[in-house]
Amino acid sequence: MNYRQPTKLPAPCIVDQGVVINQQDMQKLLAGLGRVDYAYSQDGVVASEGEGVVVEVFADDIQATLVANAALYINVCSFDYLKIDRSEGDRSSFSLVQEHRVLRLSPKTSWLQDSQNDDIDEAALEAVFDRVLLANFDASTDDESYGDR
Question: Mean pLDDT, the chain, as a whole number?
């Protein structure tokens, strides 16, 4: 007998445009968005739009996707798939689709811009860290000396 091994397909590779159906992949794409412009439409008619911050991205069969007070809590289980497109300024935009409902997210900044804007002074951060360690050391030394009395 000649048994054929099923051909294992490679994992998808999506670059700048395409459709994502895997919920973990959807979470990865959305988790780092930060500030976004959003538009929510039903049957092609925009029902709500604004600017907000992606606070949390999760997968839960019970919880809702919530958009209020400029905060977006996105449950990827609320959607059938995520479509990646190119928008103005050559940035990717993300459309979360569920039947005739679409939540479109357009990042306000890119990862490259965010990393260039990280103006953390490493020397100042190290100095603060040293102070915290020294304060903890002083506190533990004080506790030990009171215990000897």
Answer: 81
| 43 and 107 inside one domain | yes
Residue 3 CB contacts under 8 Å (≥ 6 apart), including other chains:
none
Q: Measured between alpha carbons, how far is 121 from 124 in angstroms, rounded to an integer?
A: 5
Q: Which of 71, 60, 55, 65 is nearest to 96 (CA)?
A: 65
Cα separation, 42 vs 70, in Å, equals 20
Phi-psi category of 13—alpha, beta or left, where left has phi over 0 and alpha has psi -120 to 50?
Answer: beta
| d(C-alpha 149, C-alpha 140), whole Å | 15
Give the pLDDT band of residue 92 (cuts 50, 70, 90).
confident
Same domain, 91 and 29: yes
- Global pTM reads 0.69
Domain that holds residue 93: 18-115
Is 13 inside a domain boundary? Answer: no
pLDDT confidence band for 123 (50 / 70 / 90)? low
Q: Which tokens is 146 given?
A: 């009171």
> Is residue 79 domain-resident?
yes
Examine residue 6 and state whether it is found in any structural domain, yes or no: no
Give the separation between CA 46 and CA 140, rounded to whole angstroms. 59
